Amino acid sequence: MARIPSYDDKLRYIKLVAERGAEARHVAVAAGDNRRSRRRARAIFEAMGRQKTVTDSFFGDSLITVLADTPEDGGGGSVSKAWARHVRKVFVRSFTAGRSVPWPDGVPVVASSRGR
Which of 15, 46, 83, 95 is the most exposed place for a label (fewest CB within 10 A)? Predict the structure, then answer.
């Protein structure tokens, strides 16, 4: 059984996703694609991701797109819709900004206060 990532693990992953979004933008520009819309960013994210089925006790099964290395945040090796959406938002925001923006709304997350 996979271990559920800690807050710090998730924060490190979000920073990595932000870097990937910015890098994807730079690669697209270098290839002559200057579009920086959210639609273009989502299309690139979808192309980089993989479909995964998520079971929801209320809504039933549905498909979400996640990056292959997205840490699971639920039991039984699952990724929640909320976590998947958050990862995608960070990628899209960083792509459209052309720089790493690890926080979807542009406001930094307060660091964990555990023992610091």
Answer: 46
Q: Which residues contact 75 (CB under 8 A, 6 or more apart)?
A: 4
Between residues 106 and 57, the one the model is more confident about: 57
Contact 108, 58 (CB under 8 A): no
Does residue 110 form part of some domain?
A: no
Q: How many domains does the chain have?
A: 1
Contact at 8 Å (CB) between 99 and 93? no
Query: Does residue 64 sit within a domain?
Result: yes
| Domain containing residue 15 | 7-97
Angle at 114 between CA 106 and CA 14, to 5 degrees: 35
The answer, yes or no, to whether residue 39 has pLDDT greater than 90, is: yes
